[in-house]
Design a protein that fits this description.
This protein is α/β, with parallel strands linked by helices and about 230 residues long. It has a domain at about 50-130 and about 145-160 and about 190-205: 3-Layer(aba) Sandwich (Rossmann fold), CATH 3.40.50.10610. It is built from four helices and seven strands. Strands 1, 2, 3, 4, 5, 6 and 7 form a seven-stranded mixed β-sheet that branches. Strand 5 and strand 6 (about 200-215) form a beta hairpin. It starts with 9 loop residues before the first helix and ends with a strand.
């Protein structure tokens, strides 16, 4: 008794492979054209930090203090290490805006605009020009005076010390393994209150915050800031 072997014609097998390749390419292109999901979230307010929560819990004052902030500068002169841009600074350049928000959240101060004072004065001149030449029989108004500040808050970010402590542990075998590294940075901020009437420094405080960076490297790495 003999066994009959049935073989697939070469032409048929080649056409089958071509169909499979075409379907695979079509499926891959369809996947590539699909809109990615969950790549962005809706805009929302920044979550309150523990310091903001503490400010909001302060007892109400007997009388609020009118305070002005002309600037809260970055005095460290530090830039991000390569491969970042040489013009990218290591600390924020919007510290004055953060200080103004902190003053407003505390409920103890009435912050007045001084950082954009030139723009404010320009708009006030426009209002005075409109009041001098009223239209349609309108009564001329009067632009109120600016609210004077009782104190001026000054200072800045005066220190940024990177890699004050470093360390880590790791092992690899045949190029496969796990390694960990950590780095400790410190940021120092100074804030002082100046009496407008006398120019005397009422108080000056400095605070330091420690930032811990942790690196995990099992063939890839990721920084986690606490």
């Amino acid at each position: 008794m003999s066994t009959l072997a049935i073989s697939t014609p070469p032409a048929y097998s080649r056409s089958t492979r071509l169909c499979v390749v075409a379907l695979t390419s079509l499926a891959l292109s369809a996947c590539a054209l699909q809109k990615p999901m969950n790549v962005s979230d809706r805009a929302q307010l920044a979550p309150a930090t523990p310091s903001t929560i503490d400010l909001m819990k302060l007892p109400p004052p007997q009388k609020k203090i009118v305070a002005a902030v002309y600037g809260f500068r970055d005095e460290t002169g530090q830039y991000k290490p390569s491969p970042d841009s040489a013009f990218s600074t290591a600390v924020t350049q919007g510290a004055a805006s953060m200080l103004m928000k902190a003053l407003k959240d505390s409920g103890w101060y009435i912050p007045v605009e001084r950082e954009g004072l030139q723009s404010l004065l320009t708009e006030r001149r426009v209002l005075r020009a409109v009041d001098e030449h009223p239209q349609n029989g309108a009564q001329p108004g009067q632009v109120p005076n600016l609210l004077p500040a009782g104190i001026i808050l000054e200072g800045g970010i005066i220190g940024y010390d990177s890699n004050t402590r470093t360390g880590g542990l790791g092992a690899q075998f045949l190029g496969i393994g796990l390694s960990t590294q950590y780095s400790v940075d410190q940021v120092t901020v100074n804030l002082r209150a100046v009496d407008v009437s006398t120019g005397a420094i009422l108080n000056s405080v400095s605070t330091t915050k420690t930032i811990y960076s942790y690196e995990l490297h099992p063939s890839y790495y990721r920084f986690v800031n606490y």
